[in-house]
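=== RUN LOG ===
request id: a7f3
mode: sequence -> structure
chains: 1
length: 172
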Amino acid sequence: MELKTHEVAKELGMAPRTVRKWVQKYEIPCRKNDYGHYVYDEEALARLETLKASGEVAGALDIAFDTDIKEVQFENMSTRNEESKALEHRLENLTERVSRTERMVQQKADEVVSYQLLQQRKEIEELTKTVDRLEKMIDQMQTPVKKIEPPLIFDQPPQQKRRNVFRSIFGL
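=== RESULT ===
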């Protein structure tokens, strides 16, 4: 019986990546097929099951079987302490970068709003000037216009008759 990595992982109840790491770390004998995939036999499966059952692999500690539990815990704690300090430092850096980015975004938003306000004020001023001009034009149109009445015929001086022109033409 030969099983592939995902089948072994499913049977053991673990991730396929963990199975591959254990095979490399603990040099469990298995072969690769033509496609480069690990293929496990019954002996490899049995060794993986015993590794999973042992507390040494379950804790994922890199220690020998004969070390004392206190030494393991101390080594694990110091590793965790160093890792936690590194994680805290990375978290602080990340928090600082996020804060800086937020400030930059806020500043940019303020600049955009200020620019928009200036543009709107300019438009309002132009519209106000236009409204003022229109009001003046309406006022001029509403003012009463003095009507010029045509002069009465009687008010005009009498015109001379043009009799002489006809006489000179016809020779009379």
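=== NOTES ===
Confidence is low (pLDDT under 50) at residues 56-70.
The helical segments are 5-12, 16-25, 42-53, 55-58, 69-142, 163-170.
=== END ===
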